[in-house]
Amino acid sequence: MPYSIYTPSGCDVLVGDHFCSVCPVVEGGRVRSVVFIKNTVALIDPSDPTEWDTLIANKDVIIIPATNGSFDGGSEKEGPGYGDQATKLLGYDFQLTYNDPDYKLNGPHYNEIKRSRNYRVAYRTETQIHLSTNTVSIIPKNPVADDIASEVTWNVTVKWTEEDLPVPYDTPAGIFECFQYN
Amino acid sequence: MISEIIDYINTFIVIPGAKIHGLAQLVIRKNHDNSEQLMPGLIHYLGEITYVGIDDSFPLRLYHINNSITVNAVNGTGDNRDTVNTFNNSMYVYYDRKKINLMPDDIYLYIQSVVPQKIPATLAAYTTLPFKSTFLKFTNVILNSIQVFASQYQGTGYRLHPEKHLFAINYTVESTLKKDCFDNPFIT
Known about the structure:
By secondary structure, chain A is mainly β.
């Protein structure tokens, strides 16, 4: 009995449109703010400040409003390909490094958070925030340079592995400000 | 701000009988024959000028002048770059060697040894400075009295006796500005 056959569609059908602009607005660099978000919470719309207000009130996020630092864009992890594809992209190892200038009072905070397995991370560039999906490991250090004009800061490396790249969202207004809990 | 830093520096310079002045400027004096002379003076808020230059009433007289401000941007945090303002200043010292039996370099070394390199963020009795850090650095000393006199007293012929010394100590005050911590000086 003959069987009918079909050719499964490939992954190309899932590739979204590419957008371009005649006059692109440049996104400025530097990791300007960092947020640690508890794994137990979900963000429906990362650009909505109301959602963030709720997270802040419940202490589900830790916001570090003013940092400098960089994000490495990810080191690719490749595995064997199949057919005519030599290798296949499996995902990325990501590393984000930031400096926190609020040094004196944050010793206990960094000693505690470095042990945590409950956070993912978001970082802000000029107008966009980018979020990880997977849990991160947080590696803080507080090095001191031999220079009286230097500044001692918390130098923190955040690492995680994920299949997808962090996606930019418009920064929610008024969230990355310095505040204290009562 | 720089005048407050200079007042703070001056508290460390303790020379018996000396008159230590703060931030002065060169002012023009017009003579009756319409000729003009430059000389250093402290200009008060109401426009009154106190002459701070060569004067034998005191064994030593010292004043400061701010020559210029150099501005550089360095890495900051958040959305800002930090701004480093370098105030290029000079300390002018006039003294009578008959009254202070020291060479100019001895006086300079004394000033260099007592003036702090790091200016604190909060100056007692003055103000909280809006600077992340403030450092003072001596850059050079001009011991040529004729050269220094010409720069401060244009229009006046050189007339210092050999035992009178006038020299200039050039220094910088390098301060990294904390933009968010700067109070609007126009609002009291």
